[in-house]
Specification:
Length: 422
């Protein structure tokens, strides 16, 4: 694993770090409750779009009653998952009893019946080939050795299962890690983290930064953040981070392979996650596009540095009977498939003033129109009786690899579920 500016002072062992994380997330509720949850009326749409995310068109990669594990679920990720896959059996695991209690309370108000919650450590569980889909975002990098929980996730997958994994991008964490080390240095580098002491010092430090000091613009964005977001970003007890290259190596050591990058359907907008560059240079473009997917993404990671996307990827076991599809193949199949517009409705559950959620009496059309202008034009003018390539030809759009992949992300993925393969 590549070295970096990381906060591993307290990474003395799995059990001790589990205790630190349980204590930390017992003091903050992260993530904080969203203003609303939604439930799409088409129960099959989540699984359909998940298959399209990795280039399996019109296919089912999850059984109807899939077993899903949200490993390190916090206060609400398991809720989003249970609503998205209403026929699945969802398990949410977390170290924090307080986070699980908040999740259970909201699950009851949402009427969720397909969710089980357990207080347990990913480092300690021994699930073997049990789950069709495992989701673990923002978790393994807060462990003493991230490879241990990653190996537990890999072992929990069925041979044909799918892992959704997000870890910190090393280039995103340089400033936050430096600030965190500075805060603890001001406090004398105590032998154990203490959020009650660190939080007020960190708040005062940000308030005192002047324009000629380091990092004012980055830290200024956090000045008004709630304590939960502020602490999770800047004061987490243990933090590792990765590049694409080190993540690919970690995956290989756990008998996993990276499939393609993931767009988060809960928070990111269309087109914000993109790992492929276009240089517009007749010599550079062929060199770049001749690389394997992981090699190309790593070059992007290096060149874009702090501007590169989140390290949020789909992975599968090396012995998965479903062959991995390179991005080029996915894009060619995308062009050659016939698509129809997704048309369904969604229910909204809005947050109550005190606690819990209430279902709105109104339903609304879903998914609406793409926000990205070119994707919106294609969706409007789509010929549902012909391959997508024909619609692009009629509109005079040149389907280069980079442009095709961008359109795929903006039209036919979990975060942009506007088109489904016919």
């Amino acid at each position: 694993m590549e070295p970096g500016l990381q906060n591993v002072r307290y990474a003395t062992g799995e059990q001790s770090v589990d205790e630190l994380n349980a204590e930390f997330y017992g003091q903050i509720r992260y993530p904080w409750p969203p203003q609303y949850f939604e439930r799409v009326k088409r129960a099959d749409l989540g699984g359909l779009m998940l298959a399209q995310d990795i280039g399996h068109w019109g296919a089912r990669i999850l059984p109807e009653e899939a077993r899903i594990w949200v490993a390190g679920c916090g206060t609400n990720q398991a809720l989003f998952t249970a609503l998205r896959f209403p026929h699945a059996r969802v398990l949410g695991s977390d170290l924090s009893a307080e986070s699980l209690a908040a999740c259970a309370e909201n699950a009851a108000s949402l009427g969720i019946a397909n969710l089980e919650l357990r207080r347990e450590s990913i480092n300690q569980v021994r699930y073997s080939s049990r789950f069709d889909y495992v989701i673990c975002t923002g978790v393994i990098h807060h462990n003493a050795d991230p490879l241990l929980p990653l190996s537990r996730l890999a072992g929990a997958l069925k041979p044909e299962g799918l892992l959704e994994l997000m870890v910190y991008n090393q280039y995103h964490r340089i400033l936050s890690s430096a600030f965190q080390n500075a805060v603890r240095g001001l406090l004398g580098n105590p032998s154990r983290p203490d959020l009650a002491r660190e939080l007020p010092v960190a708040r005062r430090l940000i308030a005192s930064l002047r324009g000629d000091m380091l990092m004012p613009s980055f830290l200024g964005t956090l000045a008004g953040a709630p304590d939960a977001a502020f602490a999770d970003t800047l004061l987490q007890p243990v933090e590792h981070s990765f590049t694409v290259g080190s993540l690919a190596e970690a995956a290989r050591r756990c008998d996993l392979e990276m499939l393609t990058f993931c767009q988060d359907s809960r928070g990111r907008g269309e087109g914000e996650t993109e790992w492929n560059l276009g240089f517009g240079d007749e010599h550079l473009d062929p060199l770049y596009l001749a690389l394997s997917d992981v090699e190309r993404w790593h070059i992007t990671n290096l060149l874009m540095a702090e501007s590169s996307p989140l390290l949020w990827f789909y992975l599968q076991r090396l012995d998965c009977p479903r062959p991995r599809k390179p991005e080029r193949q996915i894009c060619e199949e995308f062009l050659d498939r016939r698509f129809v517009r997704v048309k369904t409705e969604r229910e909204i559950f809005t947050r109550l003033p005190d606690a819990g959620y209430s279902r709105s009496p109104r339903v609304s059309p879903y998914p609406g129109e793409p926000r990205q202008p070119l994707a919106r034009r294609i969706a409007a003018e789509l010929d549902e009786a012909a391959p997508l390539r024909e619609t692009l030809r009629r509109l005079g759009i040149e389907p280069t690899f980079v442009e095709c992949n961008r359109l795929r992300l903006n039209l036919a993925t979990s975060s942009c579920p506007y088109l489904e393969a016919a």
